[in-house]
Amino acid sequence: MKNYCYIDGQNLHLGTAGTNPPWNIDLNKFRVYLREKYHVEKAFYYLGYVQDGLKIEQLYESIQNAGFILVFRQHNSAMIGKKKGNVDSDIIFSIMKRIHKDNDFDKIILVSGDGDYKMLVDFLIEEYRLEKILFPNKKFRSSLYKQIGAPYFAYLDDKDVKRKIAHI
């Protein structure tokens, strides 16, 4: 199998480090987990782009060093600090374009709990192209996903998964 993974970086961060208690994903362990569990060949990590010094540049570097393909959503300078990454439409467009033009992969893994992806998830299920939607945690999952069956989703904060991917 040759699967691709699309990660909403803001949603992943808020669903892990922004929870109570907070926890952090070890990006290297997470990339290995995606490769071994879901046969992910390419993992695209979407973030809003911010030029904010060394700390943020180190984050970008650590994401790439772990084997993720970093994809930025640019904002004009007047909007920096006023809005989040808001990468939803970029991810949806990229997946649809890849299905239409590339099609050299089997299935999609999506990492987000955001309900904005619900139509995409329904389409991928209908087309037998969704491997899993990985929700960062049980509390941040949109209620729109209540209808999808258990074979199509998993939680990153599940104790067995968390043990494999958490930064210690």
Question: Please, could you describe this protein's structure?
Answer:
- The chain has 168 residues and is an alpha/beta fold.
- It has a domain at 1-82 and 112-123 and 130-143: 5'-nuclease (Rossmann fold).
- It is built from six helices and six strands; from the N terminus they run βααβαβαβαββα.
- It has helices spanning 9-14, 27-38, 54-65, 88-102, 118-126, 159-165; strands at residues 3-8, 40-48, 69-73, 108-111, 130-135, 153-155.
- Strands 3-2-1-4-5-6 form a six-stranded parallel beta sheet, with helices on both faces.
- β4 (108-111), α5 (118-126) and β5 (130-135) form a beta-alpha-beta unit.
- The two termini are 31 Å apart.
Tell me briefly what this model is.
The chain has 168 residues and is of the alpha/beta class. The protein contains 6 helices and 6 strands. The chain has a 6-stranded parallel sheet, with helices on both faces.
